[in-house]
């Protein structure tokens, strides 16, 4: 690797870390296309490196966030049972499923989610700033089903699955925006680890690229955490819905 | 052990994991790919260790349903790794 490549990969990682920490996603939706198109990595290597980056993002952000107590660990652990199940199955079957077709379906699914989130942020009188997770989160069977799908996409596409988990917790379980983002950030690390270990066992993980990317992500996630604490939930939700729409368009194109 | 202590211990686990893997990556980039592989191992296992700490903490708090969820997650992660080898 040249110094320029190291700088570019580190910068990509830092950007993914900031986005991941602020929006509760791993940033894999940006990292995987950048690694395949920009750095010429094969899809399986890009997915594996992205999963390591997502684990780095979640761990670095969680090292700060746990103290603020935003994440709902009980909800996160409950949903992770379904998510990890989906991840392990999908990562093991990744070689047999056409990722391009799945990516199109995934991006089409993001569009209505994006509009639903924006509508909720604009119409709802609850600004989500001081809210707490309901004692019993609503619609757990539906939430578990979405979590399993998010886990499957994580194992196949190298994403954390936060793009589905945050809206799901917000819209299906009735969790406040900041709690959903923080809980998603906890969950995506576990999900990504499950997938990364499967790729690692297969020998599909590019070490040097993963290391540089992860170092950038760690730095970016720490900076992103400061932005999250300072931001307002409604602004966050509108920005997240716009980001989802942009991701969907990019994945279709 | 209170929930606050469990969360704080989980946080320390994350700090240790992220810090160790960062050091291994930096030295690995300068000296050896083996150190990079070790760093990837540490980083991939850091969220797993966090789940183990949380599961243990919630078991101590007698929240057995959440502890069982953590155990199920750990079993699935290691089963997936073992099956992929």
Quaternary state reads heterodimer
Overall average residue pLDDT of chain A: 80
The major beta sheet of chain A can be summarized as: none
Query: How many E-type strands of chain B?
Result: 0
Number of helices of chain A: 10
C-alpha geometry of chain A = globular
Structural class of chain A: mainly alpha
- How many β-strand runs of chain A? 0
The low-confidence runs of chain B, each spanning 5 or more residues with pLDDT under 50, are: none
Question: Largest interface, per-chain counts?
Answer: A-B, 46 and 46 residues
What number of domains of chain A? Answer: 1
Q: How would the global form of chain B be characterised?
A: flat
Domain module tally of chain B = 1
Instruction: Label the structural class of chain B.
Output: mainly alpha
Report the sheet with the most strands of chain B, covering strand number, pairing sense and barrel closure. none
């Amino acid at each position: 690797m040249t110094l320029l490549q190291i700088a570019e990969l580190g910068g990509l990682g830092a950007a993914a870390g900031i986005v991941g920490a602020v929006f509760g996603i791993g940033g894999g939706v940006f990292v995987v296309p950048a690694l395949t198109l920009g750095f010429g990595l094969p899809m399986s290597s890009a997915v594996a490196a992205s999963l390591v980056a997502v684990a780095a993002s979640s761990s670095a952000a969680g090292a700060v966030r746990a103290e603020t107590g935003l994440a709902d660990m009980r909800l996160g652990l409950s949903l992770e049972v379904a998510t990890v199940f989906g991840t392990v199955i999908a990562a093991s079957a990744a070689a047999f499923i056409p990722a391009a077709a799945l990516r199109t379906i995934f991006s089409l699914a993001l569009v209505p989610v994006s509009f639903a989130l924006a509508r909720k942020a604009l119409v709802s009188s609850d600004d989500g700033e001081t809210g707490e997770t309901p004692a019993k989160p609503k619609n757990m069977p539906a939430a578990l089903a979405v979590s399993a799908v998010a886990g499957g996409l994580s194992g196949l596409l190298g994403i954390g699955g936060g793009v589905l988990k945050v809206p799901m917790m917000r819209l299906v379980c009735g969790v406040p925006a900041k709690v959903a983002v923080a809980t998603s950030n906890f969950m995506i690390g576990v999900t990504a680890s499950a997938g990364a270990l499967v790729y690692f066992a297969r020998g599909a993980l590019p070490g040097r690229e993963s290391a540089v990317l992860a170092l950038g992500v760690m730095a970016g996630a720490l900076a992103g955490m400061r932005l999250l604490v300072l931001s307002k939930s409604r602004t966050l939700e509108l920005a997240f819905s716009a980001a989802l729409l942009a991701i969907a368009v990019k994945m279709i194109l | 052990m209170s929930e606050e202590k469990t969360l704080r211990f989980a946080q320390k686990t994350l700090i240790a994991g992220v810090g160790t893997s960062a050091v291994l990556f930096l030295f690995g980039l300068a000296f050896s790919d083996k150190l990079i592989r070790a760093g990837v191992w540490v980083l991939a296992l850091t969220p797993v260790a966090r789940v183990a700490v949380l599961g243990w903490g919630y078991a101590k708090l007698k929240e057995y349903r959440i502890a069982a969820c953590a155990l199920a997650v750990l079993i699935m992660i290691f089963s997936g790794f073992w099956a992929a080898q």
